[in-house]
């Protein structure tokens, strides 16, 4: 997969003072959304944690093939941004809001 084009960015700080930057993006996938469709869309999150006086740590999570259109994926990302969803919680959020 090519490097993503980030469409949303949020920043926050952990209770320990670490700076956390979250980048949200969409991705196209060969994994079909439904039978008969060759292309579907997913979403991803890159999280960078900047530790004081240390290196930056990156986490990435991608969920492929969950939307039929890029517009649906972008709308869901807007919702994710408002709640500061991280890579470790993405699967649970998708399960609660899309699969259920």
What does this protein look like?
The protein is of the alpha+beta class. The protein has two helices and four strands. The protein has helices spanning 70-82, 90-99; strands at residues 8-13, 19-29, 40-50, 56-67. The protein has a four-stranded antiparallel β-sheet with strand order 1-2-3-4. A hairpin with a 5-residue loop joins β1 (8-13) and β2. The protein is elongated. The relative contact order is 0.21. The model has no long low-confidence stretch (mean pLDDT 86).
Instruction: Profile the largest sheet.
Output: 4 strands, antiparallel
Q: Report the radius of gyration as a whole number of Å.
A: 14 Å
How many helix segments? 2
What is the H-and-E element order?
EEEEHH
Which consecutive residue ranges, at least 5 long each, have pLDDT under 50? none
Q: Tell me, what's the shape? A: elongated
* Helical proportion, percent range: 10-25%
Nearest-integer average pLDDT = 86
How are the strands of the biggest sheet laid out side by side?
A: 1-2-3-4
Alpha-carbon distance between the two ends: 28 Å
């Amino acid at each position: 997969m090519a490097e993503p084009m980030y469409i949303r960015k949020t920043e926050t700080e952990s209770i320990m003072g670490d700076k956390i930057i979250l980048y949200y993006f969409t991705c196209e996938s060969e994994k079909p959304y439904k039978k008969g469709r060759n292309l579907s869309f997913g979403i991803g999150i890159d999280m960078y944690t900047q530790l004081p006086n240390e290196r930056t740590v990156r986490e990435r999570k991608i969920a492929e093939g969950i939307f039929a259109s890029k517009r649906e994926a972008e709308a869901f990302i807007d919702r994710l941004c408002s709640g500061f969803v991280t890579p470790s919680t993405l699967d649970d959020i998708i399960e609660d809001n899309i699969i259920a």
